[in-house]
Amino acid sequence: MSETKEFPPPVKWVDDRLGIGKIGRKNLRKVFPDHWSFMLGEIALYSFIILILTGIFLTFWFKPSMAEVEYQGSYSLLKGLHMSEAYASTLDISFDIRGGLLMRQIHHWAAVLFIAAMMVHLLRIFFTGAFRKPRELNWVIGFTMLFLGIIEGFIGYGLPDDLLSGTGLRITNGMIQASPVIGTYMNFFIFGGEFPGDEFVSRFFTIHVLLIPGLILGLVTVHLFLVVYHKHTQYPGPGRTNNNVVGYPLMPVYMAKAGGFFFVVFGISALMGALLQINPVWLYGPYNPAEVTAGSQPDWYMGWLEGAVRIFPGFESHFWGITLSWNLLIPALIVPPAFVTLVALYPFIEGWITGDKREHHLLDRPRNMPTRTGIGAAFITFYGLLWIGGGNDLVATHFHVSLNNVTWFLRFAVILGPILAFWITRRVAISLQRADNDRLLHGLETGVIMRSPDGEYTEKHQPIGTFEAYELTARDRIVPHDIGPETDEHGVRAPRRALNKVRAALSRFYFADAVQKPTAQELEAAHAHAHDADEIHELTTETETYREVTSDRH
After folding, report:
1. Fewest Cβ atoms nearer than 10 Å: which of 319, 348, 351, 414?
2. Which of 108, 106, 111, 124 lies closest to 41 in space, CA to CA?
3. CB-based contacts of 334: which residues, under 8 Å, 6+ apart?
4. Could you tell me the CA-to-CA distances from 295 to 141, 282, 312, 402 in Å, in that order?
5. What span, in angstroms and rounded, lies between the C-alpha atoms of 211 and 272?
6. Residue 462 pairs with which residues in a beta bridge?
7. What's this model's pTM, rounded to 2 decimal places?
8. Is-cis flag, bond preceding 238, omega within 30?
């Protein structure tokens, strides 16, 4: 009873029946680290909340029906034109419902922001190694949310039944029909008959407002629960280890900052919805399978898939009366799932190659894992080039170059570009590692030239601060996976020897040319060249700090 006397009567009434006081006190004081990059996940979360709120508003007036009606609304240029109820209700929301256009545009911009924030958040987690044990499952959950968000955005994009969204659906229809054996059946199931059918808007609407949002909401709950359970990752720094979290408590500091940031995201989304036009469906007209909007482009997050289809050479094969359209099958049904699967399973692949089974709560600097950083750059380059391919016609018209030349360039670049990006990024990361080691061993160049009694000229170096030295040394020494002996002590051949050889070779490649951090002995030897007593004192203090870091991490 004494624990609940401080609660107001309503809260005490709830606590007496649910026992939330003890749980609340513990969790409201949970500490979270403070860094600007952690806000990326918050932007995605707040955008999702905005999507739910604006989506509820739009469902009051949107009519998910393909029934044909004659438009008699406020937009005079389309008055008297026959169209679906879905398109007519979208026009009514835009022109006849007070605040309707604003809500439509906030909803659309929030969808774009939601997916963009998840992508950048994913990249932050990848490059800093936040996906390592014990967070592999949370990586898969987060990536699944991104995948569902893209599908959700595409389905919502098709609901108005305008000419632009219909063109995108027509492309999707072609990709579905390219599936061997099951393509026709899948097409009839999705569209309720021959494209465009009479059922797809109502079916898409159910998926868009119930199924996928419910799945995302469930995954968000599990994702946040695991963040709390595993404790938040943090960047290296004095006092930060794998066994603690340095930051601010959830209540009141973090809650106040998070609440304020939510209104910032909401305000920016509302400002974009009010001032920046997006998806003006009245300019496109209702969907007609015989027409295509000139220069039509999908929302940016679908551009890479369309780009893969556009730049792939057109050829097909015929087997036993079955036609395989490789120009759709490979870029639309093989490459994207393979790419998505590779990204989703990357934490497990890296863990197997490196043999690292430890728990990690401190983040990596991207330069300290050159191969992983290079792989990330290769992924971005691959995605970006396909994205450009999705707008190859606009690239050709805006820059006055041949469309064929753009397409042929991208066909080679999408293969060679990621390889080049990997190599360059990896070499840059290794160079930055060497520069860090040079700062640790010799300090900062001061530009002051000194002459010794025997006539030798040297430059005076200023030792770096303790805080910076800690950040530069708070990383593990890299050890490639050891294949082990051919046989054990009893002469029995080790199992899976061939697989272990492959794993060892990949591990050597993964850690090839990586620069190890200096040992304490190397640091002391370098500091012995200090030129004055003050410098010697500072470097000695730094060496002791380094020894503490080294002992903690071993």
Report:
1. 319
2. 124
3. none
4. 36, 16, 19, 16
5. 28
6. 444
7. 0.86
8. no
